[in-house]
Amino acid sequence: MAIPKKIWANSGDSHFLEPPDLFDERLPKALADRMPKSQKFDGYEIVTVDGQQFRRNMPKPGNTGETMSDIVNKRAPGANDPVLRLQDLDEEGIWAEVTFPSIGIWASSIKSRELMASGVAALNDWAKEYIMDASPRLLPTASVSLLDVDDAVAEVRRCAAMGYRAAFLPTAVPPGQKPYHYIDYWNPLWTALEETNTVLAFHIGTEPVDADKGFGQVFRGPGGAVLNYTQTTFGGQISTMQMITSGALDQHPDLRILVSEGGATWGPFLGDRMNEGYRQHGKYVRPQLSKPPKQFLYEQVYASFQHDETAVGAMQHLGWNNVMWGSDYPHLEGTYGHTQKTLHELFDDAPDDVRRRITVGAFQDLFPEVGEPPADEY
């Protein structure tokens, strides 16, 4: 079997850096001042959201004299420029990509219904004009306000009419809202997504945060950095279980879920575990489903991964065909600058049909309109 020199792939996960004046340009000042904003310093970042402040550590510049902005711009030239981005994608061997917000992800921590609804609409209008209209290869996800289900439904339908094919939801709802498995409350949203053929896109590590509880550091002390990074993956798995066990996917068989950046080997394990609980504790199970939980996962849930060497086996040997690769451009844990090295490490020993399914086919299930990437180069 000949090994390609260049493997072309679609990406189930990337991010776009919004301009710092996005909300100032599109919202009244009283609202714009409360939308998420970021200030970067040597070794840390301050994010302000609706009167709350969050501090998080960032990589420190080395001894080169470069600022943090210099490092970010050098690392990924197309992080906030669609023209340069397409050049980056061509160089890396990426054809089409799903793009999530960056600072916009913090909108899930807003507490005002009016601010949230106005803010996500402004973000979605900008992404339509700046990202979607730049190229059919760029598929931005629509942000949605979860502070009121009617607002969420209205924004999903508005964005679908604008051409959006996916809607981004955080992996947990804002405090005070009902969790996703309360199907009677959220069913209008699942219906809107299904009827508009909009993919429900969960991105890991996007749970709303509260300034009083701190940000993102569950573990401290030895191993804390790796522990905190690893535990962010669990939110996508919990959201998936909520959608399956509540009967949401049973009632909406055409609804598709994408869990981005959370790896993929968890799918078969999670399916087995849910099946065991559904079977062994059957007398306690409500609602009753039309088929085993694992079958819903295998049929309606997709997952993207970057480097996980076991993810290929989840598709090849464990039967989960909905595994797709993602670059996580332009983040540090992504593959920018070494995409081809990563793809070769993952797929040089894999059969052609497995490589094709994970790099192209699963993505095309969800977004067939992106067409075919260039052929792998031999």
TrEMBL record:
Spans annotated as Disordered: 54-76
InterPro entries found in the cross-reference section: ACMSD, Amidohydro-rel, Metal_Hydrolase
Keywords noted in UniProt: Hydrolase, Lyase
An annotated GO cellular component: cytoplasm
Annotated GO biological process: secondary metabolic process
Gene3D superfamilies given in the database record: Metal-dependent hydrolases
GO molecular function, one term: carboxy-lyase activity
Residues making up the signal peptide according to the UniProt record: none
Keyword set includes Hydrolase: yes
Record Pfam families: Amidohydro_2
Keyword presence, Hydrolase: yes
Domain Amidohydrolase-related: 96-360
PANTHER family with a match to the protein in the record: 2-AMINO-3-CARBOXYLMUCONATE-6-SEMIALDEHYDE DECARBOXYLASE (PTHR21240), ISO-OROTATE DECARBOXYLASE (EUROFUNG) (PTHR21240:SF28)
Protein's name according to its UniProt entry: Putative TIM-barrel fold metal-dependent hydrolase
